Each structure stands twice: as C-alpha cells, then as structure tokens.
Amino acid sequence: MSDVLAAVLMVAGAVFALVAAVGVARLPDLLIRMHAATKAGTLGAGLILLAVAIQGAETGLTLRALAAIFFLLLTAPVSAHLIGRAAYRVGVRLWERTRVDEFETYCRETGRCEAWRQEFQIKSDDAFVKNPNCHPERSEGSLRKTK
Amino acid sequence: MNLFVLNGLLALGFSVVLGEFSVSGFAAGFAVGLLALWVTRPLYDDNSYFKRLPRALGLAGYFLYQLLVSNLRVLWDVVTPRQNSRPAIVGVPLAARTDLEITLVANLVSLTPGTLSLDVSDDRRTLYVHVMFMDDIEAVRGAIKDGIERRVLEVLR
Known about the structure:
The complex is a heterodimer. Chain A folds into 2 domains: 1-90; 93-147, no CATH class. Helices cover 73% and strands 0% of the residues of chain A. Chain A has 7 helices and no strands. Chain B is mainly alpha-helical. Chain B folds into 2 domains: 2-43, no CATH class; 49-156, no CATH class. Chain B has a 3-stranded antiparallel β-sheet. In chain B, a hairpin with a 5-residue loop joins strand 2 and strand 3. In chain B, helix 1 crosses helix 2, helix 3 runs antiparallel to helix 5 and helix 4 crosses helix 5 (137-156). The mean pLDDT of chain B is 82. Chain A binds chain B through residues 15-16, 19, 22-23, 26-29, 31-32, 34-36, 38-40, 42-43, 59, 62-63, 66, 73-74, 76-78, 80-81, 84-85, 88, 94-95, 97-104, 106, 110, 146, and chain B through 21-23, 67-68, 70-71, 74-75, 77-79, 83, 85-91, 106-114, 116-119, 121-122, 126, 128, 130, 132, 134, 137.
C-alpha cells in the first residue's frame, strides 16, 4: 500500500518538476516564470520528499525528509519574493498583456521610480509616462516579446 | 503558546515511555497530550490554544488544497500551446500589522501558485501582489484577504 502511494507521489513530483522547467522556458515574462519556477518546483520536490518520508523504513530518514519539506516551504517564497522584487526594481519589462500594475502607480506617487532610476542609472525623462514598467530603455529588448 | 510547548513535551514523553521514536508515535502522543490538556483546561489562564490549534490545522489544510489546485492551473497553462495567463500587479490592503503577521501572509501568498508577493508599501498597509490569472481586481483582493490573510490572523491573534 505504502509502496503504491510512494510511487504515485514520486511520479506526480517528477511531473511537477518537469512542468516547472518547461514553464521557465515557455512563459512570457520573468514574474510569470517565477510562478512556475518556485511553486511547481517546490511542489515537485516536496512530493518526492514526501514519497521518501512514506517509504523510509527508519524514523531518522522520515524526519529528515519532513524537515527538508519544512525548510523548502520556508525558503522558496523568500527567494521568489527577492528575485521578483529585484527584477521589478531594475526594470525588467513586464509582458505587454499585463492588465493592471497598481505597484507602478504607487511607485510613481512615492518617488520610488525616480530613486530606482538614479540608483540603477537609467537615463530618460519621459520614461514614466508611457511605459507599463518603471524603466523603458533598460527593459527594451531585455525580454522577448510574446504574442 | 506555552500550552503548545507543553503539548509537545507530553508527546515526547509519551514516545519515550512507549520506547517508540516514530512520527506516528509522536502524533499519537500529541493527541493523547492534547486530550489531557483539554480535560484540565480550567487550570490555565490562557485557553486560546484550543481555538488556535484547529484553526492552524485548517490553515494548513486550506493552504495544501490551494497549493494543489492552483498548481494544476499553472500546469495547464504551461502545457497548452496558447498563453492563457492574464497577469496583473494588484495592491491588497493589509489587515496584518506586526512583522510576523505580514511576513507570514506575504510568504503564504508567494507559496500559493498564481500569486507572488512583490513588495510592501512604506506605511505597511498595502501588499503588492503579482497575480497570474486576473479577471476581476476586487475578486483577487477578496480571495487573498478572505482566504489566506483572515486565516493567518485567526491563528496568530
């Protein structure tokens, strides 16, 4: 019984890990890619570790697998948050079909755009009027356009 | 919270007495310890533990369910040839105030597929979230506020 369960979990975990990898290659912009990379990746690794925990004959092995899942769940969102945040600050272009960007409005109002423009030395005067993201030049061409 | 530590110690003691150091032994000890604490609950000043524990379990269950369901959605978007995502960055007004509350809400939002917390406003009242599938801004806000945030606050407060 536990053999079957572990096998199912392992295959499911492998499928999610594969989806994460394909997602990173296929999805249109960095922030959307982070969705696939961190969540599907975490779930994939988590399921495989869970299979180990179920299948593990000794308590030590089970505990270590559970601890690994715990730390995975603890660290994955932090790194995802930091990568997304850094990308937004240096002006990685968002997908053109992004519908709303309320953060941009906030950043303009509070002068964050201006501060980042200076910090990352992005030169433009009317940069913040047209572009959906804070810094147009930097992001021009940095991301392949996807229809 | 002290009752939680006590319950953990009781569970440890239970597995020591049984001589069985396993996850299931510890879980059984935890259940027995919880029962013992519950029976003696008039003795303690702070009884919120008995309310918080089921809520914490509820949060964990809700979170695992979300993790699975929305991962399948991301999976579908990756596998099908067309790009179905409708991304947006949405500001969610936060009811969470302390560092711990905000961190936990932001982390759980990040872990749930389809949402990724980007940044918090300077006055710490708005969490900016990148959403992968957005049809209605208010629905997204409501889902985060009423789903994750409410449950986290119920556990912590």
